[in-house]
Design brief:
This protein is mainly alpha-helical. It is built from seven helices and no strands.
Length: 165
């Protein structure tokens, strides 16, 4: 009986269809940046809908290599009118690797994780402000005027309190 079952299983395996892909067929590029057919074959797994919903906390793209970040960005650029991208490569913090003070602190065993987290947030916020201010000259003037008023009024209040005591 065991021989019959084995033979039967081998026959079933032989009946499975074999898929052959011709060498001249185009199935897309290995990366989204150079894939010309991505728009036709893009399948949304829910990430795209979350990305275009600005009220969704998942509207920022982060992920490991090959997870589809570039495909999402390309699709977003093709389908939406107003898209701004902050490229981490462009805001590289390579100057930190040459910092003598950071090298010294690391050699002394200082944990710099908190510093790096704050620095990353600072650089990211600066990039967001630059994007916001690049939209129009009036926004830029208004932003810096409000900032100046906040700083100058705060210092006046502080000095007035010192003088009144």
């Amino acid at each position: 009986m065991k021989k019959k079952k084995r033979v039967k299983n081998l026959q079933i395996e032989k009946q499975k269809p074999v898929i052959k892909i011709k060498s001249d067929i185009v199935v897309g590029s290995p990366d989204a940046e150079t894939d010309n057919i991505l728009g036709d074959v893009f399948i949304d797994n829910g990430s795209f809908d979350a990305l275009i919903n600005m009220n969704n906390p998942k509207c920022i793209i982060i992920g490991r290599t090959g997870t589809g970040k570039s495909a999402l960005i390309k699709r977003l650029n093709e389908s939406e009118e107003y898209v701004k991208v902050i490229d981490p490569e462009r805001m590289s913090l390579s100057f930190l690797s040459n910092s003598t003070i950071l090298t010294y602190l690391r050699s002394e065993g200082v944990n710099l994780n908190f510093f790096y987290k704050l620095l990353w947030k600072h650089v990211f916020i600066v990039e967001i402000i630059k994007l916001y201010l690049s939209e129009s000259e009036s926004k830029k003037t208004s932003f810096f005027q409000k900032l100046w008023e906040a700083v100058s009024n705060g210092s006046k209040r502080r000095y007035c309190k010192k003088e009144s005591h």
